Amino acid sequence: MPETPYLLIDMAKTRVNIQAMAEIAEANGVRLRPHTKTHKLPSLAKRQMEAGAVGITVAKISEAEVMAQHGIEDIFVAYPLVTESKVERAVELSRTIRLIVGADSYEGARKLSDIAGRHGHVLNVRLEVDTGFKRTGVPYDEAVALADQINRLPHLSLTGIYTFRGATIDGQATLDLERAGIEEGQLMVKLADEMRNQGISITDVSVGSTPTGRYAAGVRGVTEIRPGTYIFNDRMQAKLGVSTLDECAAAIVTTVVSRPAADYCIVDGGSKTFATDVQPGTEPLQLKGFGHIVEAPDAVLERLSEEHGIIRLAPHHPFRVGDRLHIIPNHICSTLNLHNNVYLADGELIDKVPVLARGMLE
């Protein structure tokens, strides 16, 4: 058995999750372009494409380079590229695969066009629109004007628009995933129609995260969804009602290294093992602790220091030093990025696999 702590992935559950989202996309007549930030593994990206995905989504040009090196030939970098070196790399990569890049400003788009032109090349680009999440994206009311400006740049082909809204309504987190997804789709379809009325040829309307994708996919005019977490699911998705805990395919395996008292024990996974970006006790999920302990659902992974996880127990819990516990993290995407390797379990076989796109931040 591997040394703890390690990230264990149940491949049977992973295959079921991959197939379920592929069927949602197919049933709604939309393309599936999963975000690979969740797994960062070319081998799993290939499984998603074999199940019906048209390509993948990444956030960084370095992730795209890793995926392309391992045979993925249709990649969307859903992030503004604004530095010369990154645009140069995008131009180079787009000579060998189908690459789409994101933009959310005229300054950024002009840089894309200028550098592509220097190489006698045309880049495919999508305009990112803020539909309420207040992250990157041109403000919704300014999107048509910016699309018109980008459409006039000589070395860009404006193929579509995209957004990330997540499980939010009016900028606030929500548990009403159906309403959030439908509104997200409707907002973007309306915007695409306005752009077409201005003579801008928009073919791609790309929306939808794991919580909202299945609902956004049903909006007439949406062409693509980009969920990511669905491949494994996690405690956050289970609390949202997107999956059950039993459908979560990834868990951290830890060892009890100390039981100083009847009401708590210590495991060998801390903040360098579990991501802490989804904090306990926050709206709307109100999660208790930093993960779900499979062997003791009523126990709470209450505190994390760098190398220690402190689990609050009831005295009846029998855990002793040396016991192994499986803990489903609150957020799998950022948890996986903490690990150099993952362990894929398929029946009795456990395969150690390097996370090839881990840490690809540049």
Explain what this protein looks like in three dimensions.
- The protein has 362 residues and is an alpha/beta fold.
- The chain has two domains: 11-230, Alanine racemase (TIM Barrel, Alpha-Beta Barrel), CATH 3.20.20.10; 245-330, Lyase, Ornithine Decarboxylase, Chain A, domain 1, CATH 2.40.37.
- The protein is built from ten helices and 20 strands.
- Strands 1, 13, 14, 15, 16, 17, 18, 19 and 20 form a nine-stranded mixed β-sheet that branches.
- Helix 3 (61-69) links the parallel strand 3 and strand 4 (74-80).
- Helix 3 (61-69) runs parallel beside helix 4 (84-94), helix 4 (84-94) packs across helix 5 (106-118) and helix 6 crosses helix 7 (177-197).
Structural class: alpha/beta
* Largest β-sheet summary: 9 strands, mixed
User: Which of globular, elongated, flat, extended, rod-shaped describes the shape?
Assistant: elongated
Q: Note poorly predicted spans.
A: none
State the CATH class of the largest domain. Alpha Beta
Q: Which architecture of the largest domain would the CATH scheme give at its second level?
A: Alpha-Beta Barrel
C-alpha Rg (nearest Å): 22 Å
Task: Please give the count of helices.
Answer: 10
Tally of extended strands? 20
Order of helices and strands: EHEHEHEHEHEEHEEEHEHEHEEEEEEHEE
Beta percentage is 25-35%
Number of domains: 2
What is the straight-line distance between the termini?
34 Å
What name is given to the CATH topology of the largest domain? TIM Barrel
Relevant CATH superfamily of the largest domain:
Alanine racemase
The amount of helix comes to 25-40%
What do the pLDDT scores average to?
97
